[in-house]
Amino acid sequence: MKYSIYAFLTILAFLGLSLMNVNEYIFFAGFVILQFVVLATAWNILGGYAGYVNFGVPAFIAVGAYSAVVLFKSISAPLVVQIIGGGILAGLLGLMVGLLTLKLRGIFFSIATVAVVFILETVVMNWRYVGGATGLQLTRPPDLWIFDTYTRMLFFVMAVLAVCSVSIARYIQDSFLGRGLRAVRDSEEAAECSGVPTLKIKLIACTISGALMGIAGAPMPMYLSYIEPTATFNLNYSISALGMPIIGGTSHWIGPVIGALLLATIQQVVTVTVSNELNVLVVGVLLVLFVVLAPDGILGLIKKWKQSSK
Amino acid sequence: MISIDLLFEAVLFGILLGCFYAAVSLGLSVAFGLLDVPYVAHPALLILGSYFTFLLSKTGLDPIICGLLLMPVFYLIGIALYRFYYETFERRSSDTGVRGLAFFFGIAFIIEVCLILVFGVDQRTVSATYIGSSLEIGEYRFPYRMLVAFGIAIFLTTLLTLYFSKTFNGRAIKAVGQDEGALRLMGANPVKIKQLAFGIATAVNALAGAMLIIVGPVEPAMDRIYIGRTFCVVVLAGLGSMSGTLVAGLILGIAESVVMMTLGASWAPAVSFGLLLLMLGIRPQGLFGR
Q1: Complex confidence, ipTM
Q2: CA dihedral for B173, B174, B177, B178, sign (positive or negative)
């Protein structure tokens, strides 16, 4: 109850911000940060709760983005339809990837997800309708709802999506699904023997995780007014979507949110002030440091600090 | 429809390419296949080897000599990397799955970005007398650079196969993947043996990196496509089989070359990843796996 009030207030705050007369750049950067909140949260549902490391994040983003492009180009669907369509298709891809977990664990699963990225990228590269390798220029529709600019609207939409994803992750964590996934992470055999329907919950987790990544990717073409495969299928998304939850802490739904807000903000600052390459380095170095020195992430550090101060 | 002649040429080129793919995968075959370490950073170290070769070859040395000179350096890098991995993950044996993977994935990105920051995103090449010219037999042309790579590949595979079957340490490396406890009873230290194996795996990567830059221009982000090629070969081969690696490399090389000839070069990246996914879906233990 208390959480839903907070969630509602957060959405209202974002609505207020996007109607305020502030620098446009905030919305441009804020969109990306909120997008990473969705991605990190989505990754954590499978990677953090169930222990299946998904390296194929860009595949899901791209399925979301390219579904949106096709919907927009063919029937000039409104943004909401694009997002729903992208989410459904990415969820289907998640279901298919989930079927791989029948046979594959650990690194085999992770490598298989990388394979999905490159196979889909090659298909899109050779698909003329969506622009192939050269990409496709898109004209934003004039529909602004109550916002001054299109970027502000997209920022608000992404804020709603972020709050929704976090709520879903929070719900999953304490539900039957979350407990089952944690049992799978600790020991799949033991979970199966104790009556946890492991295959079913893994499939559900993969589908939800994939669908959320898809909805994070769906507004991308409209945000950039442009789509191009090399940037959309970039594995840099993988390292960020995986690094943020691990740095924040994978055991609790707030972990990925902390990680994403912190790192994506640093990344935005670094991108503007130094260079684009360096922002990948920031995540990479922090990821390695945290994995080695603080395996439970920022949440683990806070816990330790609280215990020692008592 | 393409002619038999063209197909034959594609297969010939595929054989050369395949041996090359086998050679760049040998290190992974040892580190991941035999030791079960989630060594996703292997392709990144391969590219690092290419760039070091590029730097050394500026002094006028032949790229192959550069690769050989780099082997001891990479051997030490490999030992340090395994030592670190062992101390932080394996010994604590806490949830190595997710963290070990994240660790090596992070290392791969760090290497890639550092290469971009130092060398930029431009493609780099080396020069040697055998690069650029071809051997002509009848109507077929074999680029010397591919023949050199072919030679190195055969040499490395033979050397490793002999090492693993004839020497004490080599056999111990094969044994450590199967039963650590038993190895300990035989009077060998499993950690030392694994460290040695990891050093060898990384040292092989130095020469393979030199080969990579001989075969074609190299850029920092190339490690991503080589994730597919190397893991495809290793999984196809069945974990840890050296001769299997050669056969798997040939399969991938021929498949890629034929696809390039028939569908065009833009479909080439999907071949290795497609084969990999197919293999993982149908028979994860590989063609020659136990």
Answers
A1: 0.89
A2: negative
